[in-house]
Amino acid sequence: MIHSVRFICVLDTNVIYPLEIRDLLFWLAYYDLYTPKWSEHIFDEWVAVMRRKGVDDHEIVKRTNRANLAFPDALVTNYGGLIETLSLPDPKDRHVLAAAIKTNANVIVTENIKDFPESYLASFGLKAKRADDFLTDIIDLNPGQAIKAFREMVLYRRNPDLDVYEVLSILRKRNLNNTANFLHALL
């Protein structure tokens, strides 16, 4: 079995919300297929998105607490001093890169690839990947563990309860076509 917990990834806000992408990312991390990292800045953005989407404060606290309890070593600290030294197309993304540098991450998982220029990230030994590309890579590393993680994620899903095919359909609607197709082929 291939373990890739040494593979460290900073999860940008846009892959922590929506729920289905976050759940799959978290379940694969729970099964030790990679090590997730985030920062207070990322969680602050996540909270702001949940508020804009109408999630009540109690649920927001529950979701963020669960994430931090599930992955107690995920929170990156002491990266603030790096932020101002970095140069990205969108200055609001510098905190994500700073957290990735501070934690010696391998990848930033984000849907905003254009905001993380490949050559600039390479100078820090980093890459940025969209969730669909990252997830298919992780699944490919250990398909057996990945399908176990996916099945358990579906088993624990509530409100509403869905079967694996319904969850795959949702993943496709979230632009995780390659991921959903890969998981479907493994079922």
TrEMBL record:
Pfam families: PIN_3, VapC50_C. SUPFAM superfamilies: PIN domain-like (SSF88723). Residues 131-184 form the VapC50 C-terminal domain. InterPro entries: PIN-like_dom_sf, PIN_dom, VapC50_C. Residues 10-114 form the PIN domain. It comes from the Bacteria. This is Nuclease.
